[in-house]
Each structure stands twice: as C-alpha cells, then as structure tokens.
C-alpha cells in the first residue's frame, strides 16, 4: 500500500505535517486537495486524518532547496482549515518554522556541522529570511535539551531563530493609529499581518480565557467587523473569508511582569498562546511610540527580552530598535523548540 513521505512534527506551540515539495503535486489545486484528505478536513474532529481538530494542529510545511542565494531552503506554510475545505497560503507560521530547520537537516537538504548548524530559511509566503541555529552534536540533530517554552510540556533542545526585518512596510497604512470599525487600532506587520486593539476598547479586561472569548457572540462579531475593516487597508490579497490574516490581537497591561498581555484571534479561534511572528508584530508595536500599545507596554531594560504574556504563559523575544529610523524596527530573535513525533508515510483519505 503506497503512501506519501511525511514527518509529523511539533514546532513551538504548533504541530503539523512537514513534507518535501517533491513529494507533493506541484499544481496548487491538486496539492491542496491532497492535503485536505491527509489532514482529514473538512471535519470538526478531523477523525480521518492527521489534523488535531484545532488550527494550531492542522498545519503543513512544504520544504525544498532554495534558489535564493541568501537562503538554504524554501518553506511554504499552508494553514489547513478544520471544518472547511480551505487551504490558505495567506500567512506564514513562525512556530512551524522551528521544525523546518531540523527537518531540512534530517532530509539531507542541509549538511549538519559538528555541534551547531545554522539553516537559513526563506519563508515563501512572505519572502522574509530567517536564520535558525539547530543543535547537531555528532553531526546529527538532537531534540533533547533543557529549553522550556510556555504551552509545551517538558524541555527540548533550543532552536535560536533570528528573523530579518519584514520585507514590506511595518505600518501598511503609514499610520501609528487608525480608527477602524469604531475603535483605535495599530495595523502592523513585523512578519505577521496583525491588528492591535486595546482590550478595554472592546469592554474586556484582557485576561479572559480563550473559550470565554470564543463563546461571546458580541466579541466574535466585533472581531470580525474589525478584521473586515482592516483587510483592504493592509493590502492583503484574497478575501477575509479565504485568508487567515490579519490576526486581531487584544492588548492589555502585563499582569506578570512582562511587556504586554495578549489575546490573539487566529482569525476566529483564540490562540492558547501566541504565534512567534504574531508576537514579533506585537513587540514591534510596543517598540514604536504612539501606537495603541503606548501607555500599556512596559519596555524592558537594555539587553533584556520583551516578554509577551498570553493565556498559557509568555513568549520572550528580542525586537531591536532600528539604528537609523524610529518608525522601524531591526532584527527580531526568539528561542523555540521542536520535536520529531513521527517520520514515515501518511495515507490520505481516498
């Protein structure tokens, strides 16, 4: 019985199937149909596929050698909807990105060096390049280590991720604050197109549980309204119904000594944590004076990470000020972990 080579991997606080591009159809429509059958969509339980019945566990990474001289491999991210026959390329994913580097080494696309191997990854969805440092003792990937990240039990080997500044405009409208759908918002893209809104402006405290926000019909309606209003302003291709960006992030003052507290809609479910690139966009918003984060954010001392609080803990990252332009930011850096869960062949639904 034939199958398709696939690695089921956790990357950061997400999980999904990682494939070589050569093992999937090149035609997008055929590829997407196959991935829906592999992941078990559309079905709220994804009972007949790899998906875990949540957007965070219904993700796919497609990896190939890169023709870009600045990158080793290309990484195309695909978000497979759980309950709809939709596969979206409208965003990338910084958590699955963490799995791409060890996968590239495991598949022989990048030779392992003794001790530590840096893999430069071009994120096809955005054009941004990231450098990921993977632990490779004995010239082999190890997933064992002492790094901890909120939202994932146990420890694993650290993967240091350095993100080049986003290729496009940090502020797509050119404004620090826009008024959309009746609220003030900062439209920002430091790797993830995001709309930052004060939780208080929606009558929320900012500490609500994800399930509580998802069950609040008025909150869901307002989030959809804000997202629809922001969509054309950010120049995103497609329609709000067929894309997963922009993300709406509710901000409030940190409650546990961090920089900001967040609740992130992705775009309809509420993230149990926060995505790496979403956190990078939030941190960039906190770095810029005059955004909706101004007055809520507590910036760290020089040399200390920015701590973005989320429902299950926090994400620490560095977002450097731009050396020449106060309206921009420099490199973003974060530590993630990843793990190979299964490596073999997956058999799609007929």
UniProtKB/TrEMBL annotation:
<protein>
    <submittedName>
        <fullName>4-oxalomesaconate tautomerase</fullName>
    </submittedName>
</protein>
<keyword id="KW-0413">Isomerase</keyword>
<dbReference type="GO" id="GO:0016853">
    <property type="term" value="F:isomerase activity"/>
</dbReference>
<comment type="similarity">
    <text>Belongs to the PrpF family.</text>
</comment>
<dbReference type="Pfam" id="PF04303">
    <property type="entry name" value="PrpF"/>
</dbReference>
<dbReference type="InterPro" id="IPR007400">
    <property type="entry name" value="PrpF-like"/>
</dbReference>
């Amino acid at each position: 019985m034939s199958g398709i080579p696939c690695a089921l991997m956790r990357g950061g606080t997400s999980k999904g199937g990682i494939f070589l591009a050569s093992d999937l159809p090149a035609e997008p429509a055929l590829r997407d149909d196959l991935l829906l059958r592999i992941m078990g969509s559309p079905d709220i339980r994804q009972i007949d596929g790899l998906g875990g019945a949540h957007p965070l566990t219904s993700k796919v990474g497609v990896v190939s050698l890169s023709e870009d001289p600045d990158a080793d491999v290309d990484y195309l991210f695909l978000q497979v909807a759980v309950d709809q026959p939709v596969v979206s390329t409208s965003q990338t994913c910084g958590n699955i990105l963490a799995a791409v580097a060890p996968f590239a080494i495991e598949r022989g696309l990048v030779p392992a060096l003794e001790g530590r191997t840096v893999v430069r990854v071009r994120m096809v969805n955005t054009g941004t390049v990231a450098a990921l440092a993977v632990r490779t003792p004995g010239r082999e990937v190890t997933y064992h280590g002492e790094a901890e990240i909120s939202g994932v039990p146990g420890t694993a080997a650290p993967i240091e991720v350095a993100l080049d500044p986003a290729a496009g405009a940090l502020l797509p409208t050119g404004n620090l604050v826009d008024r959309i759908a009746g609220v003030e918002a900062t439209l920002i893209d430091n790797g993830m197109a995001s709309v930052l809104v004060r939780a208080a402006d929606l009558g929320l405290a900012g500490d609500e549980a994800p399930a509580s926000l998802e069950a609040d019909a008025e909150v869901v309606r307002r989030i959809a309204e804000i997202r629809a209003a922001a969509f054309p302003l950010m120049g995103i291709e497609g329609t709000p119904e067929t894309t997963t960006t922009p993300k709406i992030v509710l901000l409030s003052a940190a409650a546990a000594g961090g920089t900001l507290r967040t609740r992130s809609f992705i775009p309809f479910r509420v993230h149990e944590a926060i995505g790496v690139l979403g956190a990078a966009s939030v941190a960039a918003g906190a770095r810029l004076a005059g955004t909706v984060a101004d007055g809520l954010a507590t910036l760290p001392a020089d040399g200390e990470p920015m701590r973005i609080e989320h429902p299950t803990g926090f994400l620490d990252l560095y977002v450097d000020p731009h050396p020449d332009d106060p309206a921009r930011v420099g490199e973003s850096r974060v530590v993630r972990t990843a793990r190979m869960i299964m490596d073999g062949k997956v058999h799609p639904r007929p």
